[in-house]
Amino acid sequence: MRSTTLLSLAAASLPLALAQDDSLTSSKRGLCYVDPEENTQDTDVWDASDSDLTWYYNYEASPTDGIDESKLQFVPMIWGLPDSTSSMAFYNTVTGLMEQGYNITYVLGFNEPDGCVSGGSCIAAEDAAAAWIREIEPLKDQGVLLGAPAVTGSPMGFTWLENFYNACNGNCTTHFIPVHWYGNFEGLASHMGQVNGTYPNMTMWVTEYACADCELEEAQQFYNMSADYFDRLDYVTHYSYFGAFRSDVSNVGKNAAMLTQKGELTDIGAWYLGQQATGNKPKGGAAQVAKFAGWAVVVASVAFWTVL
Ligand SMILES: *[C@@H]1O[C@H](CO)[C@@H](O)[C@H](O)[C@H]1NC(C)=O
Ligand SMILES: *[C@@H]1O[C@H](CO)[C@@H](O)[C@H](O)[C@H]1NC(C)=O
Ligand SMILES: *[C@@H]1O[C@H](CO)[C@@H](O)[C@H](O)[C@H]1NC(C)=O
Ligand SMILES: *[C@@H]1O[C@H](CO)[C@@H](O)[C@H](O)[C@H]1NC(C)=O
Ligand SMILES: *[C@@H]1O[C@H](CO)[C@@H](O)[C@H](O)[C@H]1NC(C)=O
């Protein structure tokens, strides 16, 4: 019942106009970094002087070699459950980075803990709460703002998060809420409306999103509308498009990729960096075996990419 109301509310507030040229740039934009494997030169695209991006995450606690920290602020993530129930590995890595002079002001919680197929970290809410209280919560006292676990965009995501907060019993502070979405723009807007309705006082980071397996025109239109939407919403403070990889290895369809099969910026890639369209058309590859099948399929872990 509740979600029906929220869906119609969100649908009523869809933007009427697409992005204008003057909205090509945005300080909210960051990089969701995916290892380019042998194409190491692709990493240089994102922190180039003509890139507009301001921050990045890489699904790990430690920064990526070759990304300029003075250009892109690193945001550590605890991807999955630590090996032991006494681990302080994440806490120690993050505080170690701060001691080395890294400007760590945010961390991200578990990646798709409600997802137990490719890409999800598949964690019981109780285990996540215990790990949170032990080694994430204390980072708050170091002045770090804490991002809630980034659940999938499916209904089970809401359930998982509710179970997590219940298991925390008031002992887990989350300063902002990351959101993932794969689908069309209307679905994205209504999902965000539902997140906002459920957690009305939390700012939002959209840390993975794309029109997965869409036609090129549709993927570009989705990109434009969502960038415009995020830029206009005060409660969205950060967003990172998925994704920063070549079209022939994309697991969300070739047209969502920011790089062509040759590593050149696509139109979406160029727009995302605050630049003019390139006209480069993304092509798929024979190796593109992973098929995206809607929100129930969880994408985007480092492990998944290794399998590819
Ligand atoms: C550290 O990052 C925060 C948040 O992005 C920013 O406001 C602040 O200016 C940065 N501090 C330094 C010393 O770069
Ligand atoms: C939460 O904190 C309270 C007060 O410090 C404590 O009594 C309780 O055991 C904690 N709960 C969990 C699940 O850690
Ligand atoms: C988000 O929720 C807040 C608090 O309920 C509300 O004031 C605001 O209008 C909502 N934002 C949108 C865009 O729906
Ligand atoms: C949200 O913030 C408002 C205004 O500060 C407050 O009245 C309300 O109780 C808060 N709601 C939740 C769910 O924390
Ligand atoms: C997307 O936005 C760019 C830049 O504002 C514009 O040139 C392009 O025509 C738009 N494309 C679609 C499909 O809306």
Automatic annotation (TrEMBL):
Domain Asl1-like glycosyl hydrolase catalytic: 30-272
GO BP term, example: fungal-type cell wall polysaccharide metabolic process
Record keywords: Signal
Domain of life: Eukaryota
Keyword NADP part of the UniProt annotation: no
Gene Ontology CC: fungal-type cell wall
PANTHER family on file: ALKALI-SENSITIVE LINKAGE PROTEIN 1 (PTHR34154)
UniProt-recorded name of the protein: Asl1-like glycosyl hydrolase catalytic domain-containing protein
Species the sequence originates in: Hortaea werneckii EXF-2000
Lineage of the organism: Eukaryota, Fungi, Dikarya, Ascomycota, Pezizomycotina
